[in-house]
Specification:
The protein has about 220 residues and is of the alpha/beta class. It has ten helices and five strands, in the order E-H-H-E-H-H-E-H-H-E-H-E-H-H-H. It has one domain: Rossmann fold (3-Layer(aba) Sandwich), CATH 3.40.50.1110. The chain has helices spanning about 15, 20-30, 50, 55-60, 75-80, 80-100, 120-130, 140-145, 165-180, 195-210, and strands at about 5-10, 35-40, 70, 100-105, 135.
């Protein structure tokens, strides 16, 4: 018997680019998991403070039918305004828990030209997830680990900020690993035909190794 996962994604373009939550749902279906049903409350360039003051986000959280509510700040948010990041993460997490849902944080990735900031982003998300006893999808850390391999595919779009399709696919693989403690055995072949089998397998492996190697201290 399979379990149904209902997930609300709260974030911005790093969530909705390339329909990343849909990729996660399709991955689960292809591999006989789930089903994973996703909804989203998103805005362009917004942070958790914006979501705290956004009536639609609050109404969706209050639905109370979610297994997980995923919180994603701007990539620069934890660096540029750490106090706001942690404060509004706490506010939103409290409401999510009141509805009986589990909080999951979505660790984002650094700008391609500012790779040195990834460790700071990692630390900010690890600390807030540990404080709030929340799950963590270590996406930025997985990107960092993939980029340490040689050779490796590029995950950033041309603007050096957002994900290209392969980056969004890897992001969905990290969420898949968090939910199912495994890597996909079957990829989305119809969408990945232009990428090498080796690159796709590297993404699957790196996503799972990152999730399984995550420590919250």
């Amino acid at each position: 018997m399979t379990s149904v996962f209902r997930i609300l994604f709260v974030g911005n373009s790093h969530t909705y680019f390339n329909a990343m939550p849909v990729l996660l749902s399709r991955l689960a279906h292809a591999n006989g998991k789930g089903p994973v049903e996703t909804k989203r409350s998103v805005g362009s360039g917004v942070d958790l403070e914006w979501h705290w003051h956004n009536g639609e986000t609050r109404r969706r959280i209050a639905d109370g039918s979610w297994d997980y509510v995923v919180l994603q700040d701007r990539s620069g948010g934890p660096l540029e305004n750490h106090d706001s990041f942690t404060r509004h993460a706490r506010f939103l997490a409290a409401e999510i828990k009141e509805q009986g849902s589990r909080v999951m944080f979505y660790m984002t990735w650094a700008n391609y030209l500012k790779a040195e900031t990834q460790d700071l982003i990692n630390r900010a998300y690890v600390e807030i997830a540990a404080e709030l006893n929340a799950l963590l999808a270590p996406v930025g850390m997985a990107w960092q680990n993939l980029y340490r391999r040689s050779p490796h595919p590029r995950l950033h779009a041309e603007d050096n900020r957002h994900a290209n399709f392969l980056g969004s696919y890897m992001t969905s693989c990290v969420f898949y690993a968090v939910l199912f403690d495994s890597a996909p055995e079957i990829g989305l072949k119809d969408l990945l035909s232009s990428y090498s089998k080796e690159d796709v397998e590297m993404i699957h492996r790196t996503a799972l190794e990152t999730v399984q190697g995550l420590t919250m201290d």
